[in-house]
Amino acid sequence: MCGKVNHHNVRIWGTENPHATIEYVRNSPKMNVFCALSSCKVYGPFFFVEPTVTGTNHLDMLQLWLMPQLQEDIVDFIFQQDGALPHYHLDVRAHLNANLPGRWIGRASHNDSPLLPWPPRSPDLTPCDFFLWGYIKDCVYVPPMPRDLPQLQQRIVEAVAAIDHQMLQRVSQELDYRIDICRITKGAYIEHL
């Protein structure tokens, strides 16, 4: 509500210490939102009721909300998630191993069966990070700022609804480009993206 957003995926790269500071606003009302992207559809937003996203409520969301939609819309898909702690929860990985063996990308242990393990600290390869959340924040945090959580939620819903097919196609092309650059550089940091 204060306009400060979670910057957990923001990385400051440099040869010297930039002396960056991050301001925290304590006890500000907030909400946790989940979205997923395909090349033709945005799944969400899903608003978590709980104040903190845990492995348990993330798994519930996957099982009860996201996976039924994905399986209805797409016959053969690869599910990609980043290395957030709820994504690495043992029960989440067990669910993905059982239901999407060899068809998921994420933080994994040696006992898991992902298509690929997720490289740590790589928000430049996650479409939600390099496109979606920045776009949503640019749409939501404009004056006058949302006054309460229902207004914030409504702005998020409207911002997601404004994402059209052409935007998703460009995001898909950008992901392909970023993956190609990663292959060429053999996984090195890509500072120009």
Strand order of the largest sheet: 3-4-5
Major sheet summary line: 3 strands, parallel
Helix % is: 40-55%
Number of domains: 1
What's the number of helices? 6
Shape: globular
**Briefly, what CATH class?**
Alpha Beta
Structural class: alpha/beta
In the CATH hierarchy, what is the architecture at level 2? 2-Layer Sandwich
Mean pLDDT score, rounded? 86
Percent of residues in β-strands: 5-15%
SSE arrangement, N to C: EEHEHHEEHHH
- Within CATH, the superfamily carries the name Ribonuclease H-like superfamily/Ribonuclease H
User: What low-confidence regions span 5 or more consecutive residues with pLDDT below 50?
Assistant: none
Supply Rg: 17 Å
Number of strands: 5
Distance between the terminal alpha carbons, to the nearest Å?
30 Å
Enter the CATH topology name. Answer: Nucleotidyltransferase, domain 5
